Amino acid sequence: MGQYIIVPMTEIHIPAVHEIEKEVFPTPWSEEAFKREINDNHLAHYLVVTFDDKPVGFIGGWFILDECHITNVAVLPSHRRKGLAKALIKALLDLCLAKGVVSVTLEVRESNHKAQNLYKGMGFEVMGVRKGYYTDNNEDALLMWLTEIKEVKADVSKNTSD
User: Fold this and answer.
1) Which of 27, 54, 83, 127 has an alpha carbon within 20 to 30 A of 15's alpha carbon?
2) Catalytic: which of 4, 37, 46, 107?
3) What's the order of all strands across the beta sheet hosting 44-51?
4) CATH at 113
5) Which one of the listed residues 23, 32, 119, 125 is annotated catalytic?
6) What total of structural domains would you count in the chain?
7) Whether 32 is catalytic
8) Is residue 46 annotated as a catalytic residue, yes or no?
9) In what helix (H) or strand (E) does residue 104 lie, and over which residues does it extend?
10) Each residue's pLDDT tens digit in the chain (162 positions)?
11) Which domain holds residue 141?
12) Is residue 100 part of a domain?
């Protein structure tokens, strides 16, 4: 039986996180970019969800004054449909509350309706469009905001035999 646990990202997680990034995104970040984020960017906060101590998803955000900008959210396809992306977002929102952050923003591909529905279900609203934001295909990004963070308490500490 395996167990999902959300923990802060450390350098030891980076190779696996990079593999997730390459599998999920058409223009993945490099391992070096993640190293800079967790070692040099004092605004950055990253979390990973592990399954039996192996990263299967992650989320990152930049905490700027009283706002958080979510930089990326990814879950391996083989671990989707288990509520992990939602749990990662909730865990980041818990961290936001602890640090006095009052609003959260992110960009999402206009064609990524599943992610948009997840974000909308968590209270995010579309507040604008970034034309040609994604460099791989010039796709527009929807700019979404969560303007009121409520206490959420993430919970993925569940066992599974999947």
Assistant:
1) 83
2) 107
3) 125-130, 141-146, 103-109, 67-75, 54-64, 44-51, 2-8, 159-160
4) 3.40.630.30
5) 119
6) 1
7) no
8) no
9) strand 103-109
10) 679 999 999 999 999 999 999 999 999 999 999 999 999 999 999 999 999 999 999 999 999 999 999 999 999 999 999 999 999 999 999 999 999 999 999 999 999 999 999 999 999 999 999 999 998 899 999 999 999 887 655 555 543 434
11) 2-153
12) yes
